[in-house]
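FORM 7B: Structural annotation worksheet

SECTION A. Query
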Amino acid sequence: MKLYFSETSPYARKVRMVAHEKGLTGQIELVPQNPMQSDAVLTSANPLAKIPVLMRDDGPPVFDSAVICEYLNGLAPEPDLYGAKGDPIAVKTRTALADGIMDASFSLVMERKRDAAAQSDVWAQRWGDAIARSVDAADRDIASFEGVITVDAIGLGAALGYLDFRLGDLDWRTGRPSLSAWYAVFSQRLGMATTAPPAG
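SECTION B. Predicted structure
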């Protein structure tokens, strides 16, 4: 299998962490792609020109990080990254929260890259508020992310890592002691350490 990815993408990082937790890293070749360049290799695999994309050996490409994660989870019975806590729908709902943090964060990063005169304060505020509410919710519900590792915790780790990487000024740790403590421990997992975005 090949994974089209970017080292700076939180979505690709989540997939790489799932592969690590499932013991599949040795079966996946990492192929760097820049989605902003709409390379023909990427667009032929995913018409949306988005990463990550998993190129399977025995089937068509799989894209969207949520779909790739579920596919990888099905390749090996253990550990079960969805049902191990007894309620796969709750796990998927918390995963949606983590993905939403990534979505809002990425949108805010892209907005800030626009020319100053073209930037929308309204949309920047909306995305910033969504991030703040979501990390507040994760802080209140941190017990649900603890214990056996499931995809919701992996997604949350990737999302918070992206906030540190691209939006440090939002200072997500302030006022969220439970989430901060959880992340300090979770960041030490090998899957987090080996998929960290490049410094600088």
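SECTION C. Observations
Residues 16 and 82 are 16 Å apart (CA to CA). The mean pLDDT is 96.

SECTION D. Sign-off
Analyst initials: ____
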